[in-house]
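Tokens for chain A. Residues wanted.
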């Protein structure tokens, strides 16, 4: 049996590329059955406006539905 890892990503930037890559990395952890949490802090809470055609932030976040709990926390 593979070892599970617990990971927490804290995103504090409103830069679309940074958020996109952070969420992409979190998604890789989820696919490897790691326990992953994401916390948006500071400017990171503006993630919905940070995307662009090149960096589909919301696409990465929507692909991370397993990360977000039903309590609304990441």
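Reply:
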């Amino acid at each position: 049996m593979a070892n599970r890892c617990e990971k927490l990503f804290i995103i504090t930037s409103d830069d679309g590329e940074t958020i996109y890559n952070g969420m992409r990395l979190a998604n890789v952890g989820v696919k490897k059955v790691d326990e992953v949490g994401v916390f948006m802090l500071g400017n990171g809470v503006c993630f919905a406006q940070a995307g662009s055609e090149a960096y589909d932030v919301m696409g990465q976040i929507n692909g991370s539905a397993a990360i977000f709990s039903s309590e609304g926390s990441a």
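The first strand starts at residue 6 and ends at 11. The helical segments are 16-31, 47-50, 57-62.
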